Batch of 3 targets.
Target 1
Amino acid sequence: MERIYIGMGSNLADPAEQLRSAALALARLPQTELVGVSGFYQSDSLLPGQPRYTNAVAALDSHLAPLELLDALQAIENGQGRQRLERWGPRTLDLDIVLFGDRLIDEPRLKVPHYHLQERAFVLYPLAELAPADLRLADGRTLTELLAACPFVGLERLPAA
Ligand code: ROI
């Protein structure tokens, strides 16, 4: 079994509700336990001209293999009305495998750790609510070090609903 962190994001169709539904769907995955969900954070889109995003991180313990989990996450995205019109377009739900135990995965469909983890405050700060501060990435850096290099700028933590 592995501890897995999932980045969740939405900027369409009531984003906070999308993330709550996604968490329920994660809790129903086979061979998987939902261990926790972070608070919700709002921030501007990294690309101009899109609505603001709401992001959170979920922690799972799962026996699923990485690509099995990826398929399951894509099924949840599709079930919540995700339309893949343009690569970086607005979306009702985005579920990314951020960390999968301490594995390094480099497959055409899946790169873990997630490429942009270290520069994305909207992933690092919710992750820090769930993960130990001494969590270490494959390159040796700890979560504390990543946070220190990524200021809490432009993020707004939403009050718990
Ligand atoms: N911007 C924010 N704030 N949150 C996201 O999840 C997000 N996802 C994206 C792009 C369009 C890059 N911008 C984002 O895919």
Target 2
Amino acid sequence: MTAYANFPGSRPRRLRTTPTMRRMVAETRLDPANLILPAFVREGIDAPVAISAMPGVHQHTLDTLRKAAVEAVSAGVSGIMLFGVPEDGKKDARGTAGTDPDGILQVALRAVREEVGDELVVMSDLCLDEFTDHGHCGVLDADGRVDNDATLERYAEMAQVQADAGAHVVGPSGMMDGQVGVIRDALDQTGHEDVSILAYTVKYSSAFYGPFREAVGSSLTGDRKTYQQDPANARESLRELALDLAEGADMVMVKPAGPYLDILAKVAESVDVPVAAYQISGEYAMIEAAAEKGWIDRDKAILESLTGIRRAGAQMILTYWATEAAQWLGHGRG
Ligand code: PBG
């Protein structure tokens, strides 16, 4: 009592007394519209394949992908980000399947657009790693290094075929220098001025991508440290950001999300374009695994993790829980 006598207003707990009070003063709100569902579609399967390191997530058939898209729409999710997994034997050094108009990602884009039209923002991962036999995000030079400028030519082709197939947004995730500018030019020159670029502006070389590599059947043996950012660096993110904006990025993304909230906050403070964050496979797997062991409350941990990402400054969050979380939020659990 006496401790507060001179500071009669200093009782923050007054604003925490009831659920309605807490709801009223909450600074951050999560809405289904903030959420984007990343989804995997695999060629040549007739039933969905479970991804063991991501319990609850599957490699979809075209059919189950359509269903997942419809469910996302009903839950109020804003967008879907598609990743294609080609049939065994269809990978090569240049990732040809990634630019084949009948490649799995293009087929999936057409199917999802046919199913949901404009009711979801349909996005495509623009990267070669799912399609190359060496598993790198670009093509290699004679010494086996990822060749930046030769890769840009492949990205330009990918942008065109993905836009032709119906992508509203392309998401270049390969971290090549100059990728946003080259993709913007390719889109503009092929009549796709309205297709936007969600740039993976700040993408760290992260151990937390582990489960994703299973999800896309990655062939990678080494690492991506010559093109993805070093987790030790923060200033470098602002340099990547300035370049992407100058090259014409419509939206920018930070990835992973949870371990990089400081970077997300910095990016969000310094731009006037929409900011996204990608809560990646390892972030998903950690919560699912701890919940499975009974060590944390799964649903609360999911919502808290999403709230933290939103609070740090992400307007859009890519999360494998998008549909489920949107369903909860729609029912007032946020
Ligand atoms: C590259 C790409 C990756 C992810 C999205 N796009 C993997 C990587 O860079 O190794 C990771 C997503 C996740 O872990 O959920 N095409």
Target 3
Amino acid sequence: MESKDSQSVKSALKISALYLIFGFVWIYFSDSVVELFSSGNPHQLTLLQHYKGWFFILITTFLLFLLMHRFLHKGFIEYTQRISEQKASHDRLAQQDTLLRTIVNSSPDAIFAKDMEGRYMLFNSGAGELVNISPENVIGHTDKLLFSSEAAKKIQEIDRLILAGGVIQNHEEDVITASGKQKYFWVTKGPLLSETGKTFGIFGISRDITTIKENEQAIIKAKEHFDYMAHHDLLTELPNRTSLIEKLQHQTSDIENHPFALLFLDLDGFKEINDSYGHRFGDELLVRITQLLQELFPPDTFISRSGGDEFVILLSCHKDKNIIHNTMFHLINTLNNPFHIDEIDVYITASIGITMYPSDASSAEELLQKADAAMYNAKNMGRNTYSFYDLQFTEKALHRTTIATQLKKAIQNHELELYFQPQIDIQTENIIGMEALLRWTSFEEMISPAVFIPIAEESGLILQVGEFVLMQGCKTAAQWAKKGFSYGRLAINVSARQLTHIDFLMTLDRIIQETQCDPTFIELEITESSILENPEQMIALLDIIQAKGFSISIDDFGTGYSSLSYLKNLPIDKLKIDISFVRNITHEAKNQSIVKTIIALAKGLGMTALAEGVETFEELNFLRANNIDSIQGYYYYKPMSFEKAEELFLKH
Ligand code: C2E
Ligand code: CA
Ligand code: CA
């Protein structure tokens, strides 16, 4: 664009040039024209010269007017245009300025600028709200006015970097304000540059994210708490099973294979303590045992509570079994001291199974499984002891699980049936009862109840198995009654877990209803152990059962720890002397005296006594001589099938 100066020079030159040309043409031609018209008369010549002068002035004035009008008019228009443009741009700037000012002042985010010395030049109301100080009090002051001295120092350091040309964007800053409040900001900062590129301060925008941050922290805290709960047992505060598995997975994935021993500790008879003294007492005992374990093992030992009364302890770097033998000896000895809780001295023992990593197993799951098998062995060894894992335990455990799975199917596949063994009156030799004994034929092979009943009890399957036996037994008894067979009562074995189950009475009623069996046809054989768990409750339950018409006998009598005190309160009709006392009765004085005592006890309590497993005439004679009431054994009959039993009844 041409500048205004050069334009006016051009216009002036144009006017002068035109004047020059006109003047030149005038001088050159006007005298010749005057001469032509004067015809030599000097007076006329003077007059014409005079007119020529006037005419020149007239023409040049007119020309001057035309030219001036043209150029000056253009210049004026341009000038006024320029003025109005300037005004418009000024207005625009002013408008922009107000807009910026409005934005800055109404922004909830803090917008600020500081000079080279860190003094605030701009501090909007958003910034004021952030630190709770009115903006006009901040202008001219540094961050020392707004924040704790430590925070101000930190900000100063960042500002120094920015003054050196740096820029920060969405930088998270945590500061303490001058009033002592913890605040979190998102900050964007950069240098203020002049037109020549010189830094003259710092600009910044920041946002208060304290609430966001606090929420975030609350979530993190909640997560941590949740994580703690998911990994710890809340009663003992020990790591729980989840932690244990994670720990084991970590330890077993370590490439260096650091050896360690896994101790699987299961308390003996904890359930009984819980039932007798209550759960609060049981909980306290668990806490005490935890403390004892923590005192016994080195402080960094991993001790976890992996189940109700189960603890798993990891002992690192133990290749030497002797050290573990000593530790176990010490642990078991210590545990044998009573715990004093609520004025009661309570005794508890533990059975411990031990596996060694990596020699026994290489995975978490396998280590635990094998330790469980070893613990099971410790229980079988009579509890209150420990056992290292041995390969044969796995086979046994596998056998147990196979049987349990097959038994589940056996119930549905009708592989179970009842056999019957007669009970004989010693005087009359008449059949006074039949015991129903369960038989399981799987793939033409007979599996002994001595094998599968304990497994069924352990796995809980005994509830289904027991219901099948009760149903089948009652059905048979009702059927035989209809046929008019007289054999006394049908004795049905009821296991402890079945009897103590909350639904037992209901099941019994339902079966009686469904089979139309008169309870007076049935005798229930229970074991001493089912009474021991909770004698008071058992007396009440058995009273109800007896009132329904059932009779009750105690099976395997003499092997448990029946105490006379409650025996006399129980509604028992018959004591069955265990097979182990009958065996060798003719030449074992101890068995003789036990059998004599049991018979005398039965008589004294108004019950009858039956001897199981009588095989020989000598055994029979001894029992007869000592006033036994009845006999069950191979001497008379082995257990027989339903058909064989019916044949027997028909013969009699
Ligand atoms: P138990 O109730 O003590 O049953 C007596 C066991 O002794 C039966 O073994 C029987 O066959 C056996 N026996 C009877 N007389 C003689 C004899 O003269 N000599 C020898 N050596 N043994 C004799 P079985 O049928 O193998 O039952 C074993 C155990 O399995 C039973 O002992 C009982 O505890 C349990 N059982 C059997 N059937 C059932 C059932 O239906 N329910 C429950 N809960 N347990 C059952
Ligand atoms: Ca029995
Ligand atoms: Ca028995």
